[in-house]
């Protein structure tokens, strides 16, 4: 069922868009304390907004072709992470549709699958497996993963005893080895030291050169320019601008600088 | 392409189940013993109370076999439903970061507790041998009992797990309901021991049918097709309701955790 090389490049990849987001909207509750009733839990997807809910994203539409590198910008709380989660399909839209036609390697909450009481080695097999890698593939890539994370001496240490930087390292190493055609990156590299961050960027660049599709959320203009060609500017839950990255950054700067 | 559909589902179920076993064995020395010690101690208590203290006139002889043949499956049901109250809360980080089919968070509990149950079956066998109970052709119904219980347990878990995310009080309510259900189900007694008027109603507790099947392995008279029939219908119904509840609430669960 798995082909040994899942090269994401043009060969065999669908010619159409890999990601299609159409009129997508998602709403959240503003306050957790508010009373929740069985009725509103089961009342399905009405387009009506109930009291104390707001649209975190609404009427967002765009398509992504294979190999595009997209940067998502916007002020805090404008829905960037939410958009990435929609694409990762870890949350579902309340209206509209999100269709993702290729596998996703989500660098979002990357340490999520790691278990404190298991060793680094066990965790690598576990997390890679949960993201769909076959055992044989993990065997093949195991050394690469460990080498990338540079924690060869700690293979049999329980995960909980690693430093927080080391935790992120091993998690990044695993997820970025998933060889999925779509890569989602949401400000995960903040913890790594400078050397490691550079290494991660080099890895992302390598994946991009290999034809991956990238979705990149960052507040760093430099990083955005470095990787992305197209930008999405989110403002108050709307897709305010979908244009080449320079244009998007200029607009964003103008909006915030004013 | 990655493995898809049911193959991937099973693969992930397996990964999570072995993960839990590894965690258990890496952090506790007695590991497997705990999963049989618990029912054994409970069985010992009931055996003592009902055969040594009171003059028992319920159940069958040998009582310890009678007791264990329902107590062990009860442990499975109780453990899986009890744990399903935390199915999402405990794994929140994983649920938020992977798009694993969400019913897995419940089904894996049913599976891992079910495996524990299978491993504890030798305990009944030992008591049966030393207690002088003999197996009846009803033993052939064991797989049916297991299947039926799996459907029932998954159904209840699928209802409980998402609702607890929104109504945290349910966590304690479920624990209380389980304690009630323990006495309301034919575990320390048999459905035959109930007053005739209650017998009809007992069938609507699907556990009556399930336990009747298990017990028929040793006690032919315990097999009651009326209980089994109604219990099976109830189990399938609950499973259907569970799936529906789960579908309807999934979206909201993902936002909430
Ligand atoms: N699970 C949730 N429940 C309720 N509200 C949420 C949830 N997730 C996000 N929100 C709200 O949705 C809005 C958008 O959040 P999001 O995390 O997408 O912002 P962001 O653009 O990533 O911000 P930042 O730059 O700070 O990372 C915020 O107002 C946030 O409070
Ligand atoms: Mg964010």
TrEMBL record, chain A:
InterPro entries named in the record: AAA+_ATPase, ABC_transporter-like_ATP-bd, ABC_transporter-like_CS, ABC_transpr_TagH-like, Bact_Polysacc_Export_ATP-bd, P-loop_NTPase
Superkingdom of origin: Bacteria
UniProt keyword annotations, A-Z: ATP-binding, Nucleotide-binding, Transport
SUPFAM superfamilies: P-loop containing nucleoside triphosphate hydrolases
Membrane spanning residue stretches: none
Descriptive protein name: ABC transporter domain-containing protein
Gene3D superfamilies: P-loop containing nucleotide triphosphate hydrolases (3.40.50.300)
Keyword Nucleotide-binding in annotation: yes
PROSITE patterns, sorted: ABC_TRANSPORTER_1, ABC_TRANSPORTER_2
Provenance organism: Naasia aerilata
Residue intervals of the ABC transporter domain: 36-258
Membership in a protein family: Belongs to the ABC transporter superfamily.
Keyword Manganese attached: no
Automatic annotation (TrEMBL), chain B:
Domain of life the protein comes from: Bacteria
PROSITE patterns with a match to the protein in the record: ABC_TM2
Pfam families (UniProt xref): ABC2_membrane
Entry membrane topology: Multi-pass membrane protein
Record keywords, A-Z: Antibiotic resistance, Cell inner membrane, Cell membrane, Membrane, Transmembrane, Transmembrane helix, Transport
Domain ABC transmembrane type-2 residue range list: 30-249
Cross-referenced InterPro entries: ABC2_TM (IPR013525), ABC2_TM_bact-type (IPR047817), ABC_2_transport (IPR000412)
Location within or outside the cell: Cell inner membrane; Cell membrane
Membrane-spanning segments: 29-50, 62-81, 117-140, 146-168, 180-204, 224-246
Entry's family note: Belongs to the ABC-2 integral membrane protein family.
Name assigned to this protein: Transport permease protein
């Amino acid at each position: 069922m798995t082909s040994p090389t899942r090269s994401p490049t043009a060969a065999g990849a669908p010619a159409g868009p890999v990601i299609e987001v159409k009129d997508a909207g998602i709403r959240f509750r503003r306050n957790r304390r508010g009373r929740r009733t069985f009725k509103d839990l089961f009342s399905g997807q009405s387009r009506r907004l109930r009291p104390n809910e707001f649209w975190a994203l609404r009427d967002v539409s765009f398509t992504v072709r294979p190999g595009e590198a997209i940067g998502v910008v916007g002020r805090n709380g404008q829905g960037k992470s939410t958009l990435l989660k929609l694409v990762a399909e870890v949350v579902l839209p309340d209206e509209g549709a999100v269709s993702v036609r290729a596998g996703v390697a989500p660098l979002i909450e990357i340490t999520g699958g790691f278990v404190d009481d298991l060793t680094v080695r066990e965790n690598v097999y576990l997390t890679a497996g949960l993201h769909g890698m076959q055992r044989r593939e993990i065997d093949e890539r195991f050394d690469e993963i460990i080498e990338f994370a540079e924690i060869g001496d700690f293979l049999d240490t329980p995960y909980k005893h690693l430093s927080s930087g080391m935790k992120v390292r091993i998690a990044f190493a695993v997820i970025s080895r998933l060889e999925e055609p779509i890569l989602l990156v949401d400000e995960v590299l903040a913890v790594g030291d400078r050397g490691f961050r550079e290494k991660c960027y080099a890895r992302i660049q390598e994946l991009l050169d290999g034809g991956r599709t990238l979705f990149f959320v960052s507040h760093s203009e430099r990083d955005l320019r470095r990787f992305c060609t197209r930008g999405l500017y989110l403002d108050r839950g709307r897709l305010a601008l979908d244009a080449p990255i320079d244009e998007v950054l200029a607009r964003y700067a103008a909006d915030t600088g004013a | 392409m990655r493995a898809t559909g049911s193959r991937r589902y099973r693969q992930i179920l397996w990964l999570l189940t072995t993960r839990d076993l590894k965690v258990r064995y890496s952090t506790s020395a007695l590991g497997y013993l705990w999963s049989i010690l618990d029912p054994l101690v409970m069985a010992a208590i009931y055996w003592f109370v009902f055969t040594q203290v009171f003059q028992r006139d319920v159940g069958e002889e040998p009582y310890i076999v009678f007791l264990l043949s329902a107590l062990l499956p009860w442990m499975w049901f109780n453990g899986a439903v009890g744990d399903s109250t935390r199915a999402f809360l405990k794994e929140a980080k994983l649920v938020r970061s992977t798009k694993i089919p969400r019913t897995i968070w419940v089904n894996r509990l049913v599976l891992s507790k079910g495996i524990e149950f299978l491993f504890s079956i030798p305990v009944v066998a030992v008591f049966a041998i030393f207690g002088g109970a003999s197996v009846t052709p009803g033993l052939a119904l064991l797989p049916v009992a297991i299947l039926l219980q799996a459907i029932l347990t998954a159904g209840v878990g699928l209802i409980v797990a998402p609702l607890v995310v929104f109504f945290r009080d349910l966590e304690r309510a479920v624990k209380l309901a389980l304690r009630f259900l323990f006495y309301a189900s034919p575990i320390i007694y048999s459905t035959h021991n109930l007053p005739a008027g209650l017998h009809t109603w007992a069938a609507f507790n699907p556990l009556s049918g399930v336990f009747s099947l298990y017990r028929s392995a040793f006690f032919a008279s315990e097999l009651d097709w009326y209980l089994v029939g109604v219990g099976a219908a109830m189990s399938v119904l609950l499973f259907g309701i569970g799936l529906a509840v789960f579908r309807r609430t999934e979206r909201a669960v993902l936002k909430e955790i």
